[in-house]
Design a protein that fits this description.
Elements lengths: L12 E2 L2 E2 L27 H9 L2 H5 L5 E6 L4 E6 L10 E2 L5 E9 L2 E8 L2 E9 L5 E13 L8 E3 L5 E8 L2 E8 L5 E5 L4 E9 L2 E8 L9 E7 L5 E2 L4 E6 L3 E6 L5 E8 L2 E8 L4 E10 L4 E6 L6 E5 L3 E3 L6 E2 L3 E5 L1
Parallel strand pairs: 13-17
Antiparallel strand pairs: 1-2, 3-4, 3-27, 4-5, 6-7, 7-8, 8-9, 10-11, 11-12, 12-13, 14-15, 15-16, 16-18, 19-20, 20-21, 21-22, 23-24, 24-25, 25-26
């Protein structure tokens, strides 16, 4: 995490400082046809879903993100890659001096929020891509910062309106959920005294949904629960969050739909990864979106800025999507598209 990069030429101008850029090799060539994912099982969307399904595959593919942004495993740089070929798009963007990138999330078409970390403090930057998908500008988000330790299992979620960032820091094994305004820098924090992992952050309006997995010494099996936190409420105790769903063993990641009505969970069992939908009101499983052969659990389910397309990031360092061969991404710790 402390490796340094030599300057390879003039990079994009960011707040008066020229960033250095680093070279990248071409990733394994693949044909990654990403299948559309429409926010799930909503009556008011059914006609739109039918129209989407009726479109030819080539037309559907044009609506899907063509590129994704990844954080290199050592945190030293961001890379942009083509989802169809796996090839590099432009050159990597180096982390701010003395810092390391931690997480990345989409905040709009061609725009991303990146978290960087140093000295027990997380700061945030915006990454813009040009029309060709190449990195164009990396700029600090003024005033937005989160104190605390950013661990390997810390996670981030950017509100669809781009005005709030949720980030999880840790004190030992106890999580702290923090929400910071990108406009004012005002921050709220919810804590717990219970060792646990908080993962799979996703926004549904003002509600922040997350997976809660207790950490117990000597435990061989742990329960995983989707919980909901109303961020309009008073900060303080994370027990203010409410249970939404109890998810089965093997759940590695989950996301709420943007209206909070459904949840898609990533399950690993019997050599397969699958994305399974659940209806929050009935707490019953619904449609299986897809299955793929795999031997590892899921780390994250990644949604694009439209909310209609998903990638699954496995602990084996691969990206999975419906109807496509896995994309090798073992050199990355996080992705967004």
């Amino acid at each position: 995490m402390d490796g340094k990069h030599k300057q390879a030429g003039a990079g994009p101008r960011v707040r008066g400082v020229w960033r250095s850029m680093v070279p990248v090799g071409v990733a394994t060539t693949i044909a990654l046809g990403i299948a559309g994912f429409v926010d799930l099982v909503h009556a008011h969307q059914s006609s739109d879903d039918d129209q989407h399904a009726a479109k030819p595959a080539a037309e559907r593919q044009r609506t899907e993100p063509r590129r994704f942004v990844g954080v290199q495993r050592d945190g030293a740089a961001l890379v942009v890659r083509d989802v169809r070929t796996g090839g590099a798009v432009g050159v990597p963007v180096a982390a701010p001096a003395g810092r390391r990138f931690q997480r990345v999330a989409s905040s709009g078409d061609g725009k991303y929020v990146v978290a960087s970390y140093a000295s027990r403090r997380v700061t945030f930057q915006r990454l813009d891509l040009d029309k060709e998908g190449r990195p164009e500008r990396l700029a600090d988000i003024p005033r937005a910062a989160v104190p605390g330790v950013s661990a390997a299992w810390s996670e981030m979620a950017v509100h669809p309106e781009g005005d709030r960032i949720a980030y999880v820091t840790y004190r030992g094994m106890t999580p702290q959920v923090q929400v910071v305004s990108t406009k004012t820098g005002q921050r709220k924090m919810w804590r717990t005294a219970s060792p646990a992992r908080v993962a799979s952050l996703s926004w549904a309006g003002d509600t922040l949904n997350f997976l809660w997995t207790p950490v117990r010494a000597g435990a061989t099996k742990t329960s995983t629960q989707m919980r909901a936190l109303d961020t309009r409420g008073q900060a303080g105790d994370l027990r203010a969050s409410t249970p939404v769903l109890k998810l089965p063993a093997g759940t590695g990641a989950a996301l709420s739909s943007r209206d909070g009505r459904t949840v898609v969970a990533g399950l690993a069992a019997r050599g397969q990864l699958s994305l399974q939908t659940y209806t929050v009101q009935t707490r019953q499983p619904g449609k299986v979106l897809w299955k793929q052969s795999a031997t590892s659990r899921l780390l994250r389910i990644v949604r694009d800025h439209t909310g209609k397309h998903l990638l699954a990031f496995g602990a084996d360092g691969r990206l999975y999507a419906d109807g496509a061969r896995p994309l090798q991404a073992a050199d990355l710790i996080d992705v967004a598209w």
